[in-house]
Design a protein that fits this description.
Elements: H1 6-37, H2 42-70, H3 72-90, H4 99-131, H5 138-167, H6 170-191, H7 214-246, H8 251-282, H9 290-304, H10 306-318, H11 323-354, H12 360-410
Helix pairs in contact: 1-3, 1-4, 1-5, 1-6, 2-3, 2-4, 2-12, 3-4, 3-6, 4-5, 4-12, 5-8, 5-11, 7-8, 7-11, 7-12, 8-11, 9-11, 9-12, 10-11, 10-12
């Protein structure tokens, strides 16, 4: 199927993905900080996000098939529409509900949001494979720009969510985000070029969700542990720790802590996105052989392993919050983010390089199913490890996940 202007199609897909990820980052911060302020425990906070990640696992298995059957445009529109519905539903949350009812309701809404996010992500990433120019490292550059810019926008969403919570309150913020996203969806439907590819042959069956290419399966396993290593500290541990350290318990102190936490997480994600976008330059000349980039993926996976272990040691030595520990954590997590971003960008390139054009939506869906599984495990371990052993255990668990990611990545080269 012909695309009149691949650059226009790429720009439209990227803009839609930006809008979605802005709302996704803001929603995560709104939920986390709002319910932490209500006194939810770390494990209860982790439960709020579990169905979001479970939905991602299921969605990524189904999304590749749906996109192949109905086209990438349909799944992209569906993701945006579901996110609007999730925001409208969340605005119905009643402060008078019990803790159990609130957790169950928010889990369900987050589950819908998880479906929406992975529909949008799979659609956008698969479209790049089909739209990018061949040769001269074009695929790597287009993937790097999409993933890097997306994460910078999501980082802005983290700060936006914290700021909206502090300035407008929970319900007003959610309604405002739903309205803006509805306008974006309307614009994307009007301006996305006709003919966005993605349909597969009509005789392809539902089965075959797992790739026949061992490289895709091994890369997916490395991806699972990579994102588990991040979310172990990112989802609950560090935000809850910083809120305890930075807030004095007064309303003014909580608002100030919201801004500081949101600002740090936004900075982390934005810097992470910038490094992702620059990854092709950091990894050397254009048009490197696929095998060379695979070897570099293994090396960068190994570089990530010691960082969370060193931070866990610092937190254990400190025994209690101290200014030097806060500074060490901020600096160390930014270094973690730099190395993590290069790993993530290389993975995003390799899955498209390994995947066949004929079944790219299926391979990308399976890969992001592994990604969602890693986030699910990381989210659960974030609450459990922080509640059982505080920040030291939380960071040490992240180190173990990073080690597992490196061991899985090694199998791409050493079989």
């Amino acid at each position: 199927m012909s695309i009149g202007n691949p650059l226009r199609a790429y720009a439209a897909v990227t803009a839609a993905y930006w809008a979605f990820m802005l709302s996704d980052g803001a929603l995560r911060m709104l939920v986390l900080l709002h319910f932490n302020g209500l006194g939810f425990t770390p494990v209860q906070l982790a439960w709020l996000f579990l169905l979001y990640e479970v939905a991602g696992i299921v969605t990524n298995l189904a999304a590749g098939w749906l996109a192949a059957r109905f086209g990438l445009a349909a799944t992209l529109y569906g993701g945006l529409a579901l996110q609007i519905g999730a925001l409208i539903a969340l605005a119905q949350l009643d402060p008078g509900w019990s803790v159990a009812a609130s957790v169950a309701f928010v889990m369900a809404v987050q589950g819908v949001s998880g479906v929406a996010k992975d529909l949008a992500k799979m659609s956008s990433k698969s479209a790049v494979k089909l739209l990018a120019p061949e040769g001269d490292g074009g695929l790597f550059r287009w993937v790097a720009v999409l993933t890097g810019s997306k994460n910078a926008v999501k980082g802005l969403g983290f700060f936006l969510g914290a700021a909206l919570l502090a300035l407008a309150g929970f319900h007003a913020a959610v309604w405002g985000m739903a309205a803006v996203l509805a306008v974006i969806l309307t614009a994307v439907v009007l301006f996305l070029p006709a003919g966005l590819p993605g349909r597969m042959k009509s005789d392809e069956a539902w089965g075959g969700w797992r790739s026949k290419d061992k490289r895709v399966n091994r890369l997916s396993l490395a991806r699972l542990f990579l994102f588990g290593a991040r979310d172990v500290w990112f989802v609950v541990g560090i935000p809850v720790y910083f809120q305890a350290v930075l807030s004095d318990g007064t309303p003014e102190g909580r608002r100030e802590a919201f801004f500081l936490i949101g600002g740090f997480l936004a900075l982390w994600i934005i810097a992470y996105g910038a490094v992702q976008a620059l990854a092709p330059l950091l990894l050397g000349p254009k048009a490197q052989p696929e095998a060379a980039i695979t070897r570099k993926a293994v090396r960068w996976a190994g570089l990530l392993v010691p960082i969370p272990f060193l931070l866990a040691g610092a937190a254990w030595l400190a025994e209690e919050p101290a200014p030097w520990l806060t500074a060490t954590l901020i600096g160390g997590l930014l270094v973690f983010g730099f190395v993590f971003a290069v790993n993530s960008s290389v993975h995003s390139y390799l899955i498209l390089a390994y995947g066949s054009t004929e079944r790219i939506t299926r391979d990308v869906g399976f890969y992001y199913m592994a990604n969602a599984t890693g986030r699910l495990i990381g989210t659960l371990l974030s609450g459990l490890s922080y509640q059982m052993g505080g920040l030291p255990l939380c960071l040490a668990t992240a180190g173990l996940m990073a080690l597992a990611s490196w061991l899985a990545a090694r199998r791409l080269v050493f079989t």
